[in-house]
C-alpha cells in the first residue's frame, strides 16, 4: 500500500492562486496524499474551491486562531493535524509537477529526506527566470549546498526526522526546519531536475522598498536565537555551521543593500550571479 503524504499549504488571500496549487496535487501520479489547507484569513477555501468546480475528499481545511498569524504558525497547526508518514510543504502560490511526490518518495526512502531543484518562475508572465541550482549536486544535498542557492528549497520529510516545528521567526524558518531534518538524516537525496515551480511576485517581501532592512533584522534575530538556545540543533558543530550560513546570507544582504543605495537596479539574484567567486568566498570567511 502506498504511503500517505501530508501536504501542508497555508493560505492567506489566496483566491488568485490556490486553485493552481490544488490542481497540481490532483494531477499527482502518487495518489495517496492529503492536503491540509490552513486558512489564515478566515476564508472558507474548501467552499470557494467547490464554487470553482474543485472538490476532493483528500482536501482538508483548518483555520488559524488569529488572522494573519503567518506561514510558520499555520504550518505547525497543519503538522499537528497531519495523518501522513511523510510531510511535504507546498505554498499556496506554488505548484508541483505531476510526478513530484512519486519521484521524491522513491529517493527519500534512503535517508527519509529528499528534495528537487526549484524552477523560479515570474508569476506575472510565467517566464522561467532561473533554477535554484545551476549545477548538479551529485545526487545529494548537504549543508554546504545551502551556500550555493538563495531560493527556498522544498523537501519531502519522513515524520521521524521532524523533532520540532517551524520557528516563529520573520524570515528563514523554512531553511532552519530543513536543516534540522538534514542534521537528523545526515544528507538528503536530490533530484537535479526541477519538479516544482517557485513563483515570485513583484508585491512580495523581496521586492519591497524596505526588504534589505527587514532581512537584516531577521538574520540578526536568528543569529541571536542560535546563540541563546540553539533553535533545536543537536550538536554544537551543526549549530556553528548554521550560524556561518546565516552570517553569510547576512553579509550578502548587507552588500546588496549598499550596492542598491549606490544605484544598482538589478534583482538580488542578478547581484549574486554577478559577484566574482573570490568575493563570494571572502564573504564566507
TrEMBL record:
Residue ranges annotated for the Glycosyltransferase 2-like domain, each copy included: 6-130
Signal peptide start and end residues: none
Pfam families xrefs: Glycos_transf_2
Cross-referenced Gene3D superfamilies: Spore Coat Polysaccharide Biosynthesis Protein SpsA, Chain A (3.90.550.10)
Name of the protein described by the UniProt record: Glycosyltransferase family 2 protein
